[in-house]
Every structure is written in C-alpha cells, then in structure tokens.
Fold this protein.
Amino acid sequence: MMNVPLTVGAMLERAEKYFPKKEVISRTSSRISRFTYKEIGQRTRRLASALETLGIAQGDRVGTLAWNHHRHLEVYFAAPGMGAVLHTINIRLSPEHITYIINHAEDKVLLIDEDLMPLIERIKDQLTTVKAFIIMTDKDELPNTNLTPVYSYEDLLKKADPGYEFASDIDENSAAGMCYTSATTGSPKGVVYSHRGIVLHSYAMALADTAALSETDRCMPVVPMFHANAWGLPFAATWLGTTQILPGPQFTPKLLAQLIETEKVTITAGVPTIWLGLLNELESGNYDTSSVRAVLCGGSAAPLGMIRAYETKYNMPFLHAYGMTETSPLVTLSRLKSYQTDLPEEEKLHVRAKQGLLVPGLEMKVVGANGEVAWDGEEMGELLIRGPWIADSYYNDDRSEEAFKDGWLHTGDVVNVDEEGVIKIVDRTKDLIKSGGEWISSVDLENALMAHEAVFEASVVAIPHQEWQERPIACVVLKEGYQNTTKEDLLEFLKPQFAKWWLPDDIVFLEEIPKTSVGKFLKRALRDKVKNHLVK
Amino acid sequence: MMNVPLTVGAMLERAEKYFPKKEVISRTSSRISRFTYKEIGQRTRRLASALETLGIAQGDRVGTLAWNHHRHLEVYFAAPGMGAVLHTINIRLSPEHITYIINHAEDKVLLIDEDLMPLIERIKDQLTTVKAFIIMTDKDELPNTNLTPVYSYEDLLKKADPGYEFASDIDENSAAGMCYTSATTGSPKGVVYSHRGIVLHSYAMALADTAALSETDRCMPVVPMFHANAWGLPFAATWLGTTQILPGPQFTPKLLAQLIETEKVTITAGVPTIWLGLLNELESGNYDTSSVRAVLCGGSAAPLGMIRAYETKYNMPFLHAYGMTETSPLVTLSRLKSYQTDLPEEEKLHVRAKQGLLVPGLEMKVVGANGEVAWDGEEMGELLIRGPWIADSYYNDDRSEEAFKDGWLHTGDVVNVDEEGVIKIVDRTKDLIKSGGEWISSVDLENALMAHEAVFEASVVAIPHQEWQERPIACVVLKEGYQNTTKEDLLEFLKPQFAKWWLPDDIVFLEEIPKTSVGKFLKRALRDKVKNHLVK
C-alpha cells in the first residue's frame, strides 16, 4: 500500500474541495458570522503564510488562548498544516500555571482573544520564548495593550497568501497539537497529539457505531477548544464537511438554547455542568430543540435523572462518553447493542448512563487488587488503555512513569465492567478505599448519602487503619432545618444498600466541604482534616 | 501518541471480547450453520495454531480457493493474525492463470473448498511451492483426491490450540493479504494489502457518511471473498461485531432472496449482474425484503432503471460505489449531500447513479488531455487515486510502472466530475476515442445507440485517423425484424444527442460482437476487425 501519511492538513483540504459551500457559524464577542469552508480554507492558508513570515517553522509551538470560534478553528489547521504544533492553553488555569505551560512548551507565538489579553499582560515579563502576540478581535483597530510585538489577526491575514500550500513532508507521527492537563500536585502535564492520532481519532468519532458524526450534522461543541481539542470535534467535523456552530465566549444556557433553535443544531458536546444549566433554561423557556439528535456528554458522569429529563421531556438523546486529555479524548461511548434494544426502558437507561463500550481501535484492561477483574458489573479495578490515539508520555516530564507503564496508560479511574464489556466509572484510584484487600468506592457511598433528604453534601475519604489498612469515613454537610439528623440515622439509611464492611466507620458533620477551584471535593484537604479522627 | 500498530488480529479480538454472542451465519454446500464470534475466535486460533504446526511462518502466503462461508472467514483472520498472508485466489480464472498466481505468490499451503478441488487436482503437478492442501468440507471423511499431503480442515482444528495467541510483533505495513487482478494482456497482477490498509479501509466502510456499517447490521456480502476481500466487508463486520450472513457456493437469486427474508439482511453487496438477477426473482416471487437498508453495488455501473426499480418497487435503497482490486477497494460512494435532499426525485436518482464522492482518507485527481479537468460534469479525464489503502505497485511485476506513476494510481478509468466533486465513470482509457485533442466516450455512444429500438447491441471503437488521430466507428447488431434499419437512420437518431464531431464516422453492421469470457465487449478484437475500414 502507498506510504501516504495521515495528516491534519489533508482534512481541511477535503472540506475545501468537496464541501466549499458548507458553513462554519461563529459567535465572537460582537457578532455571529458565517464562513464557507472555501473561505475558512483561504483564511487558514493566509494565517499559515503569515505565521511563516513571523518566523514560525516546522515543529514550533503556536499557543492559543481562545474561545470556540472560527479564528481558533483556523489556527487548528494552520499550525499543523504548516508542520507547526497547535498548543491550546487552558485559560482557566492560574497565572502561574499558564506561565509554566507557555514556557515549558516553548511557545513561539501566542494567538489571544481580545477579552483574554489581561491573562497574558499580567505574566508577559515571565514568558521566555514568545516572540510575537497576535490579537484575535472583531474590531478594525488593535486594542490597547502593553504586549509587544503585537499584531492584529485580521491585518496579518489581509497581507498574507491565500494560496499557501500546506507542508507535504509531514511525518504522521510528528506533533500536530499539545494540551496540558492539571496534575493533583505540581505543574500541569503536557500531552502531545500526533497527526496520525488526530486522524484516527476523527475516524473513531464518525463511525455509525460511535457519535456517527456526519456531513448532514450541524455540530456545536460547547466543550472548549482549549480542552482536549473540543473532544476532536473541530477536526472531524471539518474533514466531513459538517456544518459547525462555534458558540464563542459567552455560552450561557440561554445563548446555547437560542443557538440550538436558530441554527438547528443536531449534535452538541459538553460536560454535565453545561447540560444541567441548559436543562434549567429549557424548563423555564420555550425553545424548539427538535433538531438535536445527540447530546454528547463526558468529562464526568452525568446523573441518571438528567439523562432521563433530556430524553423524556425534550426528546434530546443523550450520548454518554468517557475520555481524558491523555486519550485525544474518545475512549468509550455508551450505545445499546442491537440485542439490548428490547430491554425495559429503565434498564436501557441504566446501561446508557454508564460510560460505555470501547471504540474500535483501542484496547483496555481493568486491573484490580487481584489482577484483571471479572466482568460482573461489580468487581472494581483501574482502567488501563492502549491505542494509537493514546499518549505514551507527558511532554518532557519525569512524572510520565507514574501513568505510563508497560505500554499502557494507567488512567487513575476505577471502573467496573459488566458482562457486555461496558465500563462504569466508580472512583479515582487515589480516592478509593482499600479495606482488607477489597476496594470500597467513595463515590458510591457519597451518592447514596446525598440521596438522603437531610444531606446537602457528602464526601467519603479513606483513613489509615492498622488492621484493615484503610477504612471509610464520611464527611457530611446537612441541609438547613435538618440539624437533628444523627450519625445513626444515616448509617441506618445506608445499611440496606451496602455490604456491612462498606459502611463508614464514622460520619463527621461539617459546616462545609473544602473544594477545588472548579467545584470538585478537595479530598486531600478533607483527609488531612479527619486523619487523626479514628485510628484503631 | 503510543506506537500501536493497526493490525487485523486486533479486529477479531474486538469481536471475541465485546461481541462474543453475536453470530456468523454460514451457508456451506450441505447446510446453514450458526457460529458465535466466540466460537469463530476459537476456531480461528485453532486454525492459526494448525497452520503453524504445518510449518507456516510469518510472511508465508496462505492460499484459499473458497466461497463465502465461515471457514473462509476464519482463514481471513488466522493468516494475518499469525503474521502470514491471506492469498485469496479467484476461482474463475483459467487453470493457467491459477497456476501462475499460486506459483508467483509462492503459496505454501492451499485451503480448498471440496467442490473446487478439481481446479487444483488438474494443475497440482505444476505447483512449485505448495507444501500442503487443506480441504474445507462439511463431511466427516476427507473426500477422495489425488492431492498430497492433504488434510481435513475440521480434523486439523480438532487437534489444535484454541488459545493460540496472535503475533504481537506485527509491523502494520507488512502484508496481511493478497489478491490478483486480471490484466488486459498477460498474466494476472498481484496486489498486496497491508494490515494498516485493511484497518483504515474498515474505518472508511463504517463511517456514518459511507456504508455506515454497524453492529446493528446483518451484512450479507454476495461479492466473493476471493474478489478484493469481498470489498473488505468481512474484516469491517467482524471488527464491529456485525452479524454476518455468508451465502456460500450457491448464490442463485432465489437463495439470496430467501436469505434476505429469513435472516433479515440489512446490508448486502455485489455487482450489478447479481442485482439484475435478484430483481427478476423479486418480481416473480413474494419475498419480505423490508429489513434491507442498503444494497451496496460496485464493480461496474448499475443501470439507472435498476436502481429505480429497487427503490420504488421494493423500498431497498441502493448505494452505488466505485473501487478496484488495487484500492482495497472502496474509493467513492454515492450519497446525497445534505443540501441536495430537496432536489426533485429524478434529479436525486441521477446524482446517486453516479459513482459518488471520495471517502475520507483518499485523494483524487482527474487528468484529461489538457491537465486536470474542470468540475463541470462534462470534461473527461483519467481518474488518479492516492491514499493509505491504495496499492503502490504490483507484486514482483515489471508492469507496475504503467499504473503507478509519481505516487498516484492511474486507474485506467475515464470519469467526469460534477461541481459537487462527484465522479461518473464514462469509459476505460484504452477504449476512449482521442479525436483532434478532444476525448469521445465510447460508452456514451454505445448507450445512446442501444436505446434505439432497432439495436440489439452496439460497441464503439477508435480507428486511427491521419488528421484527427482517432475517430469513432460503431459496430451494431440489429434486432431480429429490424434488418432494414440503415446507417443513416442511426446517425439521424444520434445527431440531436451529441456534438457533431462525436458522431461515428461509420456504422458497421455485424452478426454479433465478440465478447470476453465474462460477457464484456472484446474491443481489442473489434478494433482488429475494423481497423482497415476507414483510414483517411
């Protein structure tokens, strides 16, 4: 067979050639614009030509601090198309981490949304490798800034060559993209995406048995383009000639609902928080969402009740998926097998609320305390993944060995596997409670406690135990008006639901549970708080 | 990203792990059997283990002479799984060509259907590399044969290891399969399929925008497994856990119609001849074909009337595709773009009757007399293809240079391209008439002539011409009772349909048109017959 590399540039070329009239609808800070793929292609080539003029060469990192819009999409293809590396920077990280990331990746140029300029202005003096700043703005004038040298994106494009030819000598295993993921401790860790990985991941997104992304779709990624390439959707959608709706910087539930209605979105993608917000909006407003065929949901587990509400009240089918920055990200996707379609509705919902089945092209292993787990939907183990769009290390980082061992990515996610091979995330390895050689899921206990009418929040952590190694202890915040609830009440409530040895050794009532900046329970702080509580 | 190779063995492993209960329904000479993928997996591993015992090593060619059934499917995965090469032999070739192919590929072992044994018994003394013959039969006893050493497939499996592990050190660019294609002159030419090519081709078959092959399908390939891997369907279907219906040695229209009804086939694939036969059967019988969602049709152009009949009378959607042995084979597939769905029905049918749009992952170029053609649906040029599942040469064959030039496969097919990028085959390059620097399609003239009530058959060939280089001449066989039709009658009939310079310089009436063994016009013989007819 011909030795033709799989490259990102060829994906855009397909859209230019075969879908020149199809559109990208882009919401920026001031307007909604519509560009054809023919225009996007020319603008992308102009951008690549301008970057080359600025001195960007093959292998150089091109950083972006940007929302989901057409200019960001153009960088998605211009950088890899010219053999450079698209480095999407998570704007939600702390200034220290953003500084670290830019210096560690050695970004040569930064493309920055106008409203995100302050993030960089604050740290510009610590940036050691950046040679130029390009501001993405709808305005004709370059906004006031102390960044230098600074260029206007649109000005650069005007002067550049729309006939720029993408690099033809690209090794498919070379870097096309980069994204840093936060670590539990220390600096963020960089993941490098190859051309090959992005193309194969795009196939995996477009299979009839996965997200079935198609030319006929109108795809709105709400997941940010600075987060695991917006789950690879901009790449795959462009390749297929799919209409894209990029919702820009303000993606409030109201604006999303409006875009779904006016742009007749067929598939959209985001984390559960987004869908919780949208659900509230749908319940208060009056929107036509009948165009939607799939709400792709990942990042963390979607509550069953939310899935049920979307499907029964709004006829918007949910598509639950699992992945992480290290996995490009698609790993599993939850669809019923052909012979499961006759199950009772509620049972089907329970299957579909799990994280799903491994997509074609990857391998997985689930390893528990005693080796690979049984596929019984109960035994827990850590999920290990292998495949051509899975990272093999962190970029220039000696923490790689923790996660990458023997050719497998150790995800740190604890799952069970049912007899159909469908996985369900039950915990993070670091939060799991290892008691007497068996594993207890902190998440299962938390969910059970939070289903009690008196409980506002609950977090379950492990404390060291001489005999059992670790034992669970529950930290509970009671709802107002339920202050009389006792430890015994809650234990009684848990008893029928769990094996006896799963029950927490103690329940500690707190005023509040310490949280991370994105609202997750800060279990490390909690463990410190209760560690001397109960050592037997 | 991890350096994980794309391999054929991993495709079967996916079916074994995630779809062990799904079935392969196999029609052999004596019965219909049902095997789960779990069973197919174990039988395949037994086969690989048995082949190893017989001395087959990595890189060795494993020849098959077999119809579409479960045992052939097992060889499809056993040979590549162990690092050997599946060589499917076209049983319809002459004994001389079959001998050439087996010796040229250096097959070490042949797996032969019982009813095809005579093909090999006749030539066994000319085979220079074959060390063993394995007979695939439903019977308990090995049939009488003079082949030696000879083994029974089922006997070998009984004694072999169902836990055989597939090779883990396979280079994805190494050979997984081989197939020879007939040449216009001389011996057949060998095409080698790599593991990488087969996996990527399987993705291409399973996209929502192509054949959308899915786990939910019940797939019946009628195209033989000895012909371009049955268009790659057995590989893709196994990977996805699709139910397969393999129709075996007797695929009469009646048996196919019965299988469609009883096995609720959703997708089937074959050449137009098969579908013409099935159409007759459907019109005379009374079959329930409501399960069918796609009739995949390729190999040669399907007549518009047939497509219309299938869709309007039987509600069986046609899916027209183009490819060749050298291209794995999927190259284009005819689906409407999203904005074409509002076209009038007849116009849509005309679009869908073309060969369609290039599938994601390939590149094409159409080169005419004056370079790349305009996309106007008229200008003709030769179709050139490039991509990771396109052959880069013929196996050990100095005729490679004719077809593979500058990194492109020169298909020898002449096409036009409409403004949507959809191709339509209009001729073979060798049959095209090059007149005064312009091209004339022999096929278009033939089709126009055959639409005349008096014409039974028509074939148009080029004859040399001093001034115009070549000019068309039509050879016509009249229907009985129309012997009074004149050359002038036919030219008058053609005039309003073509530019003046397209009209044949002469029309020659013949008793019959010489044909190849498969019923195609033998234009070479025809050219010889008329070459001195008209040289100006």
Chain B touches chain A through 58 residues (CB under 8 Å). The CA atoms of residues 63 and 136 of chain B lie 13 Å apart. Chain B is about 30% helix and 25% strand.
